[in-house]
Design brief:
The chain is of the alpha/beta class and 260 residues long. It has one domain. It is built from nine helices and seven strands. The chain has a seven-stranded mixed β-sheet with strand order 1-7-6-2-5-3-4. Helix 1 (2-23) packs antiparallel against helix 2 and helix 6 (165-171) crosses helix 7. The chain is globular, with a radius of gyration of 18 Å. This is 1-acyl-sn-glycerol-3-phosphate acyltransferase. One of its GO terms (molecular function) is 1-acylglycerol-3-phosphate O-acyltransferase activity. It holds the Pfam family Acyltransferase. Keywords: Acyltransferase, Membrane, Transferase, Transmembrane, Transmembrane helix. It comes from Roseiarcus fermentans.
Amino acid sequence: MLAVRSIAFNILFYLTLTVLMIVGAPVLLVGRRGVFALANLWRAASVWLLETICGLKVEYRGLENIPPGAVIIAAKHQSFLETFALLKYAPDFAIILKRQLTYIPFFGLYLIVSKQIAIDRARGRQALQQIEAAAKPVLAAGRQIFIYPEGTRRPPGAPPRYKMGVTALYGANDVPCLPVALNTGLFWRRRGFLRRPGVAVIEYLPPIPPGLGRDAFMARLESEIEAACDRLNAEAANRDPSLLALLEVGANCDRLAAPA
């Protein structure tokens, strides 16, 4: 039954995305605001499909911690789920993403029109400079910037791999950073088609004020996000002990992926 529900969801999820991109194409003429309105429609439809078909509810916590105006939203990244679920409480955002996503037919056009920040990760220091330069006018306009501190999806329970992009972004701008913890990867794995029932939690932690040194900022960001993620993972595993196996796989992912 889990497989059947997951297949049904996946078909409807990608069908909904495709139909909205085609039918909603006129919003491209409106610009960024039009794209955001369509993106939030997609988010709402996707969350409804998850709960209705898969029995997976998305729960938001710590909404009182979201500051108004310009903020760097540094979110743990475990699955595709948070890429749309996080849009609910970000009215005017830019996401730092890999440039290759803008090459996807039609989808990439939406990213370009909505003025997302696409970078070439292979460029190292130049990529950091690109992030800093592109972020300044976004934050100056009172918008939000999303960044995944580890750069890519990591399974729940995996050892953290925070990169310098978020530190460079924080250090170059006088705005708070909002850490976001979650346990979405327990229900929507980064590789695999199963969508497990349960409660996927997205928790906004207290914002980190501007002005910390880079080392102090990185240590605080990582410790707060990882501690909260561990708590959310444990909470989910207490409800459903079968999720412990996924945490064990995540904890050993780097060792298992290493060449023999």
